[in-house]
Write a structure and sequence with these properties.
The chain is built from 9 helices and 11 strands. The chain is an alpha/beta fold.
Length: about 260
């Protein structure tokens, strides 16, 4: 069997994809510009997707790539172009991409970038699978950890369908072990919650009391969230709830998080 490459394989999602693939008995190569520890049994190759240096060597003999690397600071489109071109040269048969629910209907700049990468992949000539997921538990935790620095917390009147990265990683690994499927059904968390109930859950789990103040934010971006374009709605694929996630992490410090992907590529 040919190796599977995971870009951003040291990030919050990527490292879980790596573990799942290793558990399935596959050889895994982790690509990242960050020299963090990787799952035992995988092989680490330092590659900066922004420059593309070392990509051709890293993809030689590889059958499948799972592209988890992303960053909020810009450059995803350029990195993806280099990755997809190198994958094409190497004869990679399958490229799996993790994206975000609602990127074509909510005009966030980061979402526009994710949509542009989806379109690049569709036009690349590669066999591909794209899956969009709802917001990760880590993102919701990070939002309220940041807002909770103040005793008064503004809470927008919007809903989320948060999902655990372990559930998403399992599905991505399953897709990577299969054949290219194009755009597959969106992947949603186990429940739809309004932001206020998620805020209450977070502050209860962390033992802090905060005054939650409803806030209606104008503009097209928040209108997209109020319309529920960030939700799957008819699919509840995840199994781990936000409360279960919080119970496991109650003593941990929230980390900086990048929505539906991992930094490090």
């Amino acid at each position: 069997m040919t190796p599977i490459v995971v870009t951003g394989g040291t990030g919050s999602l990527g490292r879980r994809v790596v573990r799942t693939l290793l558990g399935a008995g596959r050889e895994v190569v982790v690509l990242s510009r960050r020299t963090r520890p990787v799952a035992g049994g995988s092989r680490f190759v330092p590659v900066d997707l922004r420059t593309g240096a070392g990509l051709d060597a890293a993809l030689a003999g590889v059958g499948t790539v799972v592209h988890c690397a992303t960053t909020l600071t810009g450059g995803d489109e350029q990195s993806a172009a280099k990755l997809f071109a190198a994958a094409k040269r190497a004869g990679v048969a399958h490229l799996v991409y993790i994206s975000i629910v609602g990127i074509d209907r909510i005009p966030l700049p980061y979402y526009k970038t994710k949509l542009a990468v989806e379109r690049q992949l569709e036009a690349s000539g590669l066999g591909y699978t794209t899956m969009r997921a709802t917001q990760f538990h880590e993102l919701i935790q990070f939002i309220f950890a940041t807002l909770g620095r103040s005793p008064i917390v503004p809470v927008p009147s919007i809903r989320f369908q948060p999902v655990d990265t372990r559930d998403v990683a399992d599905r991505l690994a399953e897709l990577a072990l299969g054949e290219p499927a194009g755009r597959v059904p969106d992947f949603g968390g186990p429940e739809i919650r309004d932001a206020k109930s998620l805020a209450r859950a977070y502050f209860a789990a962390t033992g802090r009391r905060r005054l939650l103040v409803p806030l209606r934010v104008p503009g097209r971006i928040m209108a997209g969230y109020r319309s529920g374009h960030n939700l799957v709605g008819d699919r509840f694929d995840g199994t781990i709830t936000f409360e279960q996630f919080l119970a496991e992490r109650a003593t941990r410090r929230p980390s900086r998080f990048t929505d539906a992907g991992d930094s490090g590529g």
